[in-house]
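quick one before i forget lol
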Amino acid sequence: MIAEEYLSRSRLFRRLKSGPHGQIVELYAARRVKDGLAGHGTWRSFNLFDGLMNWVASRCSKLTDLDEGMVERYLQHRSGQQSIQPGRLGGARGRRRKSEPASSPISER
């Protein structure tokens, strides 16, 4: 799915666009569409942006205070909140149930 299709259906995008940083969100969305980037990456990007803006507000900071050091502190905060496992999908699709074996038994001939 291309970014434009995703944006036409995304509640997260609509919420961010109507928020206090709507202009920034719209500019970023236009860039994603221009680059033809996939929908899941777009969701992740907007989700990260949303988390960063909420974190900045919770620190009683302004967007103009944002610099590389502040982003680094946010990423450290975020990594403490959730673990990121490379190569695994989020949600139930990427998880194995405890009752499932680690690998399928192979029958010998």
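fyi Residues 39-58 form the longest helix (20 residues).
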